[in-house]
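REQUEST FORM: STRUCTURE PREDICTION
Request ID: SP-0412
Submitted by: Lab K.M.
Chain count: 1
Length (residues): 247
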Amino acid sequence: MPNPWDLGSARLLEHCGFEALATTSAGYAWSLGKLDQHVTRDELVAHVAELASATSLPLNVDSERCYPDDPGGVAATIELLAGAGAAGCSIEDYDPATDSIDDIGAAAERVAIAAEAARRLPEPLVLTARAENHIRGVDDLDDTIVRLSAYRDAGAEVVYAPGLIELGQISAVVSAVGIPVNVLALPGAPSLRELASAGVRRVSTGSLLAGAAYGALLAGARELQTEGTSAYAEVGVAREALRDAFG
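STATUS: Completed
RESULT:
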């Protein structure tokens, strides 16, 4: 389940034959000239509506903390995302305001609110609950498993601990939680085949595809500035691929 960041990347990924897509909070923020965690709820909902209208694939939304401090809080965010065309969304336990992981009780309570709101919809959203430990400097697998289990019990249908790359740790999470687990396809992570053999049900790319695209842009720009050459353009998207995806 790769993560496009704009309409063009969404259509290209659909044309590649993937069966579902997901937004990326960081990738979308960069497309607005912002840092991650600085996109407003209104901006996110508009982005979801654009992507949902541009592709026929189910769309999962990286909705960060589900904006608990905005009007209507988490429940209103779930309703707005569903109205924009989302098929699922995620809620995480990292608080950028304090740069810390939320108390497990408070985080599980927000998951419960999100799950109830998702179930009330005419077409319920698939709710993914995220434990952010391993991408926020907290290397504590036991705490991650406790958190994911609490989020499962609060109503999450999928759980996700981005940052895990050791197959043994991933297998331990899969065995412990007993519901579908999402894994982030980081460099050095097991292959998709290995993850499948460990019982992983879903794999996403987060901001990695957007980061690679922006990295290629910067590398080309620096080549122009320093060398005055355009060798960067030897590797690029095929015009035929663009015609097939956008035509």
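NOTES: Residues 42 and 176 are 37 Å apart (CA to CA).
Reviewed by: T.R.
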